[in-house]
Design a protein that fits this description.
The complex is a heterodimer. Chain A contains 13 helices and four strands. Chain A is mainly α. Chain A folds into two domains: 79 residues, Recoverin, domain 1 (Orthogonal Bundle), CATH 1.10.238; 85 residues, Orthogonal Bundle (Recoverin, domain 1), CATH 1.10.238. A two-stranded antiparallel sheet of chain A has the order 1-2. A two-stranded antiparallel sheet of chain A has the order 3-4. In chain A, α10 packs across α11. Chain A is globular, with a radius of gyration of 19 Å. Chain A starts with a helix and ends in a 7-residue tail after the last helix. By secondary structure, chain B is mainly α. In chain B, 67% of the residues lie in helices and 0% in strands. Chain B contains 28 helices and no strands. In chain B, α1 runs antiparallel to α2, α7 packs across α11 and α9 runs antiparallel to α11. Chain B is globular. Classes of the chains: A mainly alpha, B mainly alpha. At the A-B interface, α3, α5, α6, α9 and α10 of A face α20, α21, α22 and α23 of B.
């Protein structure tokens, strides 16, 4: 019972998160209540098991990778700041934000950062390249067991071939961005966090 | 012979043939018109001059119908009995006229670029109607409301529903319903009330039009017509979202229109109208819409279930599609529900299951028949619109007509602006001002208003209403229809994406879809992805298992597997080496793209099939999955035995699978069929089918292999029959 009090959100924290992620006050509080409802252990941080308890996420073919994306390298717990930082990638890009650029760093929900998030779902070893094996793994997860390895291999080869500009057999982040240049990523990779 | 109907672009024809073809077409066309005239002349009003050309050859009145030969007792060698065949003959002539007009339209050079087809057809109708009127001095045959609603409208709506792009439609469903329901209400009330105001301002001529009459009139004139919208927008190729918004709205506002029309009509018959009646009217809207929806769902599911059992009588499988859809339409009309909603829902529901259950050729038949019937219907509707304009019943009133026109435009524009400003806050993808303008401007009226106005109970000013309706329809179709294309280009509205997505795009977009679904789960946001996922799971678990044939549930995967095998072999033979981990870069052949896309779309839990040109009347959407797979793609002898099967199918399924595979081998060409048990025989059957392909220039190998394998055909007794049908198909494809 006592540990509950320590997980209440303080105003300064809200302000910091607001500055870092761009969420509004009400969005942050709403997401905080979601965070706490997921946090069954009530220790102010989410573990992988907490995520896996979400039923639909368990059925999602990319469920594990999505969960991993929340956890910074090597760690097993994610606190609210980290949670918000990850979710900030999916904030819709507002028009008035496109023009003003307050800080030097790009906002977390810019197109590049969104694409980078997707890129990292493939790139497990974080070498900034999607190798054929990594691609195959993701394909296998998405496609299921009905397709033979051979076919999957051909698909993977095609994919790399289409994207690979410098011929190294892997897809770099720039090549990845180029392939998706016609796709409306800002709109696709946004969740409407209701005000 | 090319099976696929010509695309709107003129097919390559040597220019020397062109004038002679045109001449031939026009001769035929005029000959037909003369025939029609003759028939029109034949059907009495009596005591009129029969047209000299055809009519004089026959007598119209005598029952036996012989020539007036002055040898009464001799055996009649030649006799003409027109009455015997009159009704179907005339119908066929009208349809022939319509179709020839359509043909002529497409051959007439620059005209299709400027004038939409609907305009030309109406003009032809006007011409024919005028000529008939001139000959008979009485009104030409008009489009009866019954024949319109029962025979001409359903095929068009069915075609629209069957080829509706599902994902796009459901993504925008909220906006579409918003426009359809609220927009129609707004328009009806706005136009009705302001028209009543106009009538009050001109009491001399318009004084006897009551408020209810105005509302009744506005309820039928406010509705956007799907037929007109389809025919104009299909030539325009605007971006998909805009298209689906306008088109979806025109389809769904039928419920509101029908209810309001019937409501005001029954109000007119009631002695007085109370608030309760209005409230009940509102409830009726909901009942009508939802009733149509559920009826459509019911029939769609029953149709899907029936199609599951059609494997032994494949020829009549397409018939079920049409029968059930039409039945749903008729049932909902019988219950005074929204027929259009029912038939659209039916088509949308049954499509995926039927496509999986019936054979390839049945699928093609379904699609072709749908396109054909809807095309004929649409043409007939427009021609009859033209013909029916020529009548005795016109009553003109400048203030009424002009104000109706202006008010229609005004209220539609304000309605769209207002509604969009509200709905944009809730949408991910905002509707831009240009899109809004096109939505407002593209609100064409068509034959539905026309038929509804004829159904009004008679009252003194009914002819005025008819005239006004005709003027509005002609105005919207001609003026708006002709100018919308240049406007689209002028305003630089976003056009349709021409290219199909690459494989990488597909895969990455699927990844993003899954990612977003996962994120929405984490956030606890029941967004679109969430519901889509849920529906897909429900679909997979219950519906597909119940409604799709058992052997078909694996079918798509096996087919795809075989496609890839074939592709792999070809890549092999061309590179003349083992499969290179980094094959030389070459542009993807369409067949390969299709096979990959098919794997992805079937296995990646995704709704969206492909970018289909759903709206074109002139060519089927390039369902590459079925069509291209069957082109003579085999360049090299497919030796089935080379690849071992990696299927994880359990042993007892093998026989069933191999049976279905054997059956398939005849019907679709792209097989390297291999199963553990019957590897040799199946590959031989394939080899023998190869022998029957037309010789390809780059195909040096088949002949040699054929001789060796043809004597091994005998063990396979099922395939020869299929090979025959396969042959026919082969020839058709050329």
């Amino acid at each position: 019972m006592g540990s509950r009090a320590s997980t209440l959100l303080r105003e300064e924290e809200i302000e910091e998160i607001k500055k870092e992620t761009g969420f509004s006050h009400s969005q942050i509080t709403r997401l905080y209540s979601r965070f706490t409802s997921l946090d069954k252990g009530e220790n102010g941080a989410l573990s992988r098991e907490d995520f896996q308890r979400i039923p639909e996420l368990a059925i999602n073919p990319l469920g594990d990778r999505i969960i991993n994306a929340f956890f910074p390298d090597g760690e097993d717990q994610v606190n609210f700041r980290g949670f918000m930082r990850t979710l900030a990638h999916f904030r819709p890009v507002e028009d008035n934000e496109k023009n003003k650029n307050v800080s030097n760093t790009e906002p977390l929900n810019s197109r590049t950062n969104k694409l980078h998030f997707a890129f990292q779902l493939y790139d497990l070893d974080r070498d900034d390249k999607i190798s054929r094996d990594e691609l195959l793994q993701v394909l296998r997860m998405m496609v299921g067991v009905n397709i033979s390895d051979e076919q999957l291999g051909s698909i993977a080869d095609r994919t790399i071939q289409e994207a690979d500009a410098n011929g190294d057999g892997c897809i770099s982040f720039t090549e990845f961005m180029k392939v998706l240049e016609k796709v409306d990523v800002e709109q696709k990779m946004s969740i409407r966090f209701l005000h | 012979m090319c099976v696929y109907p010509c695309t709107p672009l003129c097919p390559p024809v040597p220019s020397s043939c062109y004038p002679s073809m045109m001449a031939a077409l026009w001769t035929l066309f005029w000959a037909l018109s003369v025939c029609l005239l003759g028939c029109a002349g034949l059907t009495p009003p009596q005591a009129h001059n029969l047209p000299p050309s055809v009519g004089s050859n026959s007598s119209s009145s005598s029952g036996g119908g012989g020539l007036h030969v002055d040898a009464p007792m001799a055996l009649r060698v030649f006799s003409l009995d027109y009455h015997h065949v009159q009704a179907p003959f005339e119908i066929v002539l009208w349809i022939m006229l319509a179709s020839l007009a359509k043909l002529g339209f497409h051959w007439s050079g620059r005209v299709p670029a400027v004038v939409p087809e609907s305009c030309v057809l109406i003009m032809v109708g006007l011409l024919v109607g005028g000529v008939i009127y001139g000959v008979r001095h009485s009104a030409p045959p008009t489009l009866s409301a019954d024949s319109f609603f029962l025979f001409l409208l359903p095929p068009i709506v069915l075609d629209a529903g069957y080829f509706l792009p599902g994902r796009l439609f459901f993504e925008n469903l909220g906006t579409i319903l918003w426009y359809a329901v609220l927009g129609t209400f707004w328009n009806v009330l706005g136009i009705g009330l302001s028209l009543y105001g106009v009538c009050l301002l001109a009491p001399s001529s318009l004084g006897d039009i009551s408020l209810l009459h105005c509302l009744l009139f506005s309820s039928l004139i406010a509705a956007v017509d799907p037929v007109a919208v389809l025919s104009v927008f299909q030539e325009m190729q605007v971006n998909d979202q805009l298209h689906i918004l306008v088109f979806g709205e025109s389809l769904l506002n039928d419920a509101v229109t029908v209810v309001l029309y019937k409501l005001f009509e029954s109000f007119l018959r009631l002695p007085s109208v109370s608030g309760l009646d209005v409230l009940l009217g509102m409830c009726r809207v909901v009942v009508v819409g939802l009733g149509g929806l559920f009826l459509g769902l019911f029939f769609g599911l029953v149709a899907a279930l029936t199609s599951r059992f059609t494997s032994r009588a494949q020829v009549i499988a397409p018939l079920f599609v049409f029968l059930y859809s039409y039945l749903s339409y008729l049932t909902s009309e019988m219950l005074h529900l929204s027929g259009i909603t029912a038939i659209v829902t039916c088509a949308v529901t049954m499509k995926q299951y039927v496509e999986a259950n019936v054979s390839e050729r049945s699928n093609t038949s379904i699609q072709y028949f749908l396109k054909m019937w809807s095309s004929v219907s649409e043409t007939l509707i427009f021609i009859f619109l033209g013909v029916s304009t020529i009548q005795d019943v016109h009553m003109w009133s400048w203030p009424f007509v002009c104000s109706t026109l202006l008010l229609c435009l005004f209220w539609r524009t304000t309605g769209v602006l207002l509604l969009t400003s509200v709905v944009n806050k809730l949408r991910r993808n905002a509707v831009t001002f240009r899109d809004q303008f096109i939505i407002a401007y593209g609100g064409l009226r068509g034959a539905i208003c026309f038929s509804l106005v004829f159904l009004i109970d008679d009252f003194p000013k009914k002819k005025l209403f008819i005239t006004t309706t005709i003027v509005v329809i002609l105005f919207t179709v001609f003026v708006q229809g002709m100018t919308i294309k240049p406007l689209v280009e002028l305003l630089d509205v976003k056009r349709k994406k021409k290219a199909l997505p690459t494989v990488s795009e597909e895969i990455h977009t699927r990844l993003i879809d899954h990612l977003m679904a996962g994120m929405e789960d984490v956030v606890g946001y029941w967004g679109q992805h969430f519901w889509k996922d849920k529906f897909e799971q429900f679909n997979k678990k219950y519906l597909r298992r119940f409604l799709i044939r058992e052997d078909q549930q694996a079918h798509s995967i096996l087919r795809v597997y075989q496609e890839l095998e074939r592709r792999g072999q070809r890549g092999d033979a061309e590179a003349s080496s083992v499969v290179d981990p980094r094959p030389p870069s070459r542009p993807l052949l369409p067949e390969e793209m299709d096979s990959i896309r098919r794997i992805l779309s079937r296995n990646l839990q995704n709704f969206n099939k492909k970018q289909t040109r759903a709206y074109s009347r002139h060519s089927l959407h390039q369902d590459v999955a079925t069509n291209r797979a069957r082109k003579p793609l085999h360049r090299h002898q497919s030796v089935g035995g080379r690849y071992t099967c990696n299927t994880t199918a359990p042993q007892e399924d093998d026989e069933r699978l191999s049976d279905s595979l054997r059956g398939r081998a005849g019907l679709s060409r792209s097989h390297t069929v291999c199963t553990r048990s019957s590897r040799r025989t199946l590959s031989d059957s394939l080899a023998s089918t190869e022998s029957q392909t037309q010789s390809q220039p780059e195909n040096p190998k088949p002949e040699g292999v054929d001789q060796t394998s043809s004597d091994q055909q005998h063990p396979v007794e099922k395939t020869p029959k299929k090979q025959l049908s396969f042959n026919l198909e082969n020839e058709n494809q050329q």
